[in-house]
Every structure is written in structure tokens, then in C-alpha cells.
């Protein structure tokens, strides 16, 4: 698959990885890019720069997702590719995190993909073609030693992507799953007590992440790993869970120590 002449929707397209995806898809000849984000101001800024169109969208609201998909179908007649990328880092911690916070991150990091796929897949199935990318995280394959809601919801996002890839391949829909480690965006760069701050060490740029997406789409691979070392970590985790948990405990302690929390 390539993005040339495609009608594309990118959620979370106002900033970070989503913005870089929009710009790269535009540079590679996409026909039209819809930039949807809860941050409408920046979505519009991105849309203007790539001759696209901005939508205000809260991906945790199913009615809102349905409406956007209907509007795109109405205007462009089809949607070739959705990068379901919007997501939040959420809270540090585990048991102390309030249920409402767990619920909110689940809605944004998991259910959003269900809502968008549910609304868009029927038209893709009718045409026998379409592509759907879920931005999960390396935390969905490995874990996040400081933020259980993020780790759990990103694992769920990977599982959902796998299920959709299994179920809808025969209907002509190509599903992929983007699992980066640190990418230099607000999600990891913001704030001193950011639980993702330790990921800045080996972080790549959002543009490098978008480049990895383009290369993977060309090969139609399911798992997109902008940090190739993540593939090695997956093997290590599978080989010996206890050894792996032990090293994650050490990483957690080191991060907490360095932050003096
Ligand atoms: N930055 C990283 O290191 C990293 C690593 C792995 C995975 N990810 C994932 O990449 C995706 C993009 O994150 P990013 O790093 O670009 O962060 P970011 O904060 O720069 O961008 C996230 C975007 O999602 C939007 N958004 C948040 N909640 C929304 C909602 N309810 N409805 C619509 N839009 C909403 C934000 O306004 C923002 O524009 C997320 O799913 C994130 O979990 C990021």
C-alpha cells in the first residue's frame, strides 16, 4: 500500500506523531487528508498547511466518530486509510489511579479504534479495500513500568489490532499496528513529573516515526516498529518472563530514584 491519491483520516493529527503523519502523507501525494483532533486550533493549522480539512473530534465519543466518517464519505465518496492515532499518556501509578481516569484512558486509547472501525469498515468492505492503522505503543508489547493504565490500554490496543487484522483481511482491509518507543512529542517531553520522561533518552523524531510507517505500509506488515530493538525486547520477554520482570523492576527503581519521587 502507498498513500498516493488516497483519501486519509488521521486522528490526533494536530500534534506530534499525527501531525508528522499528515505532513508525510501529503508530501507522498495523498489526495486529501482529514485532520481530526480534540485540539481544533492546531488541527486547522496542520490542515491548512497540507491543503486538508480539519475536524474537531473527541475520539472517545462514538457519535462524534460516526459523524466525522459520514461527513468524509459524503464529501469524498470514500475513505481509503484511517490512521487511528489519537491517544493519551494518562496517569502515573496503578491502584491509586481513580476509576474515572482508568475509564477515560480506556475510552481514548482503546474504544476510539472500535468506534472508528465500526463506522468506516462497512464502506471499505463494500469496496473490498481499505486500510486501518492503530497507534498503540511499545508499551503495548513490553510494558510501562510507571503507568499501569497506559500499559494496560496499549496492550488492549495491540490485541484489538490483531483481532481486526485476523477478521478483516479476507474483506480486503489491511490493518496495521504502530508500536514506537520514545518519540519526541508532548506526550513524553512535557513536564518534570511526566511518567514518560525517561523515554526521551533514545527518542526519535515524529518525522522518523512517520518514515517507519510509510516503509511498513509499502510492505503491508502488521507490526510497525520504528525502534527495531523493540523486536529483540519482545523475544527476551517471551524467553524468560521472570528475568524480564526483574529488569523492569530495576528500571522502575532507577527512574523513580532519578526523579526523587
Ligand atoms: N510520543 C511517544 O513517545 C509515543 C510512544 C508510543 C506511542 N505513542 C502514541 O502515539 C499517539 C500519538 O501521541 P503523540 O506522542 O503524538 O502525543 P501528542 O500529545 O503530541 O499527540 C496526541 C494528539 O491526540 C490528541 N487527542 C488527545 N485526546 C484526544 C481525544 N479524546 N480526541 C481526539 N484527539 C485527542 C491530542 O490533542 C494530540 O493532538 C498516541 O496514541 C500515543 O499513545 C506515543
Describe the structure in your own words:
- It is a single chain.
- This protein has 261 residues and is α/β, with parallel strands linked by helices.
- It has one domain: NAD(P)-binding Rossmann-like Domain (Rossmann fold).
- 52% of the residues lie in helices and 13% in strands.
- It has a 7-stranded parallel beta sheet with strand order 3-2-1-4-5-6-7, sandwiched between helices.
- Strand 2, helix 2 and strand 3 form a beta-alpha-beta unit.
- The mean pLDDT is 96.
- The protein binds nicotinamide-adenine-dinucleotide.
- Nicotinamide-adenine-dinucleotide (NAD) binds next to helix 1 and helix 6.
Topology:
Layout: E1 7-11, H1 16-27, E2 32-37, H2 40-49, E3 53-56, H3 62-76, E4 81-84, H4 99-127, E5 130-135, H5 148-168, E6 173-178, H6 186-189, H7 206-219, E7 223-224, H8 229-239, H9 241-259
Parallel strand pairs: 1-2, 1-4, 2-3, 4-5, 5-6, 6-7
Helix pairs in contact: 1-7, 3-4, 4-5, 8-9
The chain binds nicotinamide-adenine-dinucleotide.
Nicotinamide-adenine-dinucleotide binds at residues 11-12, 14-18, 37-39, 57-60, 85-88, 108, 135, 137, 180, 182-183, 185-188, 199.
